Amino acid sequence: MSDLLEVRGLSMHFPIHGGILRRQVGTVYAVSDVSFSLREGETLGIVGESGCGKTTLGRTLVRLYAPTAGSIRYRGREIAGLARSDLMELRRELQMVFQDPFSSLNPRMSVGRILSEPLEIHGWTDPDERDRRLTELLELVGLRADDSRRFPHEFSGGQRQRIGIARALALEPGLVVADEPVSALDVSVQAQVLNLLAELQSRLGLTMIFISHDLTVVKYISDRVMVMYLGRVVEVAGAEALYSEPRHPYTRALLRALPGRRDASLEEPRRIEGELPSPSAPPAGCAFHPRCPHASEVCRTDLPTLRRIGESEGHTVACHLADEI
Ligand code: SF4
Question: Which residues contact 272 (CB under 8 A, 6 or more apart)?
């Protein structure tokens, strides 16, 4: 499999304006210096607490935001600096599935209109072709062709997310970024939507970035998992390796906190102490040091960078003491 996406040194910082003159009084360092590659057909899970930057990263990758710095190469083409007017073609290739299927679907449009609109915008001028594609999409996500006449409020939460997935797939995108796609759903419905995504992965060879705060869900769907903390990547590994041999104290604490996980080898406390610091004032050195039970002097001053660790291929960690913990 070749690399579909190559991200290098990606940062997304937002200015904070204040005072009568609306001067810039600070910066939110939402995503800082993120690098990774994604192969065709691969699913990369991104996990971390709320506020860790995972949603901002997803939105920056599909160019809903213009990044502050860094490179995003999609199929070998640099897209980080593309102007808004050049993004139209990219929209077809890079699609998102959003967390809340209700607010992301226009309540005044029938499902048929919701799914036909992107086709029309992207040049599907023949109404018969559009109708055929509409039926195909509805069946692909487990809905009926005559559901196209109904409106979003007539569907359950799980069905609405199926419509959201169908809309994301309408133009046969190269990459789908799914941002917490099941977290607003009941647990029983979550499993159905996850199974649908897993089935689409294998049927269509989807390349996907799956963002979630729920490590169990991420493990189920991902080939590799990337853990983020306060805008930075702290660990990357194959899904199995990350769950069986987590090396970063933050990853270990996240896993230790999972219900039913009573692995005495994970010495981190069950709850991570303290609050996530503000992304507008990240701590110096390792940003996790105020909450880390292993923090030493070097952690307070030096920023750890990702380095290879362990036996598994592609397992990297950003922790000064990962070899000793
Ligand atoms: Fe903890 Fe230090 Fe590792 Fe950061 S670098 S996770 S503070 S041990």
Answer: 250, 253, 254, 257, 291
The residues lining ligand 1, judged by C-beta closer than 6 Å to any ligand atom, are 248-249, 286, 288-289, 292, 294-295, 299, 304, 319-321
- Closest ligand 1 atom to 249 CA: 6
Q: Which amino acid is at 270?
A: R
At 17-69, the pLDDT tens digits run 998 889 999 999 999 999 999 999 999 999 999 889 999 999 999 999 999 99
CA 249 – ligand 1 centroid, Å: 7
The rounded Å distance from CA 235 to ligand 1 centre is 12
Query: Six-digit token pair at 147?
Result: 């559901």
Q: Is 33 helix (H, G, I), strand (E, B) or coil?
A: strand
- pTM of the full predicted structure? 0.92
Among 230, 267, 268, 292, which is best to mutate for testing ligand 1, by the most ligand atoms less than 8 A from CB? 292
Residue ranges of domains in the chain: 235-325
Q: How far apart are CA 306 and CA 312, in angstroms?
A: 15
Interacting residues of 284 by C-beta distance below 8 A, sequence separation 6+: 300, 301
